[in-house]
Amino acid sequence: MFYKPAEGHGLPHNPFNAIAAPRPIGWISTRGTMGDNLAPYSFFNAVAYVPPQVMFASTAAKPDRGDTKDSVAQIRETGVFCVNMVSLALLDQMNQSSAPFPAGEDEFLHAGIAKAECETIDCPRVAEATASLECRVARIETLLGQSNFLVLGEVTGVHIRPDCLRDGRYLPPDRMVRLGYKDYAVVRDTFELDRPG
Question: Homologous superfamily of 22-187 in CATH?
Answer without folding.
Answer: Electron Transport, Fmn-binding Protein; Chain A (2.30.110.10)
